[in-house]
Amino acid sequence: MSDIIKNRYDFILLFDVQDGNPNGDPDAGNLPRVDAETGMGLVTDVCLKRKVRNYVQIKNENKKPYDIFIKEKAILNNLIKEATEQEINKGKEKGDKTESARKWMCENYYDVRTFGAVMTTGENAGQVRGPIQFTFARSIDPIIALEHSITRMAVATEKEAEAQNGDNRTMGRKSTVPYGLYCTHGFISAHLANQTGFNENDLDLFWEALKNMFDQDHSAARGMMSTRKLVVFKHNTALGNAPAHQLFDLVKVERNDKTKSSRAFSDYSVKIDRSKLPEGVELIEMV
Prior knowledge:
Elements: E1 9-20, E2 24-25, E3 31-32, E4 40-43, H1 45-60, H2 76-84, H3 94-108, H4 110-115, E5 116-118, E6 127-129, E7 132-134, E8 137-142, E9 146-152, H5 158-163, E10 170-188, H6 190-196, H7 200-212, E11 224-235, H8 244-248, E12 251-255, E13 268-272, E14 281-285
Antiparallel strand pairs: 1-10, 1-11, 2-3, 4-8, 5-6, 7-10, 8-10, 9-10, 11-14, 12-13
InterPro entries: Cas7_Csh2/Csh2, CRISPR-assoc_prot_Cas7/Csd2
Pfam families: Cas_Cas7
Organism: Bacteroides luti
């Protein structure tokens, strides 16, 4: 097992979508999420964490210590019960049993020691606050959500076929964003990593996931999504050497020609002011 991380990190992730829906809103007919006041597109932190989980799950095939706790069709209480029934928990008082179960979950589930989890829905394995957190991703410019009519050359039931008089076509709707460049900010706490056991190998896997997660998440609904830029600020201390917002302000993303609609990443320029980088902070362009 590698060493627990000892440095604070802040990072900026730029990703884009072309002719797809990066994160549908179920309360709005699955339309792309949008800030109603500004028209900026939104992607939730939960959506981004899901993509990281999926990448880790695919790469490691649910093998411990890189298993995933929050995964499709998982029954969480059964997984929590597994932790409380481990040999290390036998014969312990209630408080010690909960702490041992919490530790076991952190050791065996990558997403628990990375993002944290609430594990009190059945058997009590405590709560974990993870060292890595995302903000909502927000598009650089306002987005336009388009709706398209689509047809299916089939029906689901014989009753539908009879109603169509043999014309087995049904209509549907599909929502897309022609193009959007999104930016999310992230934070990695060495203090919380020490509590969950998040180590250097876990960190390397996280960076790998951010670079490649969209390539393992293609679907007809999401169109073309890609990681375009990953800028990491590594502090030489656990507490950090500068406020995160001060570091994020060093990265500027601007549209090259504001008179034209953007339709590709090449329509933007990413500029980083390295001259104002605070002492004790290393800037790493991973993508």
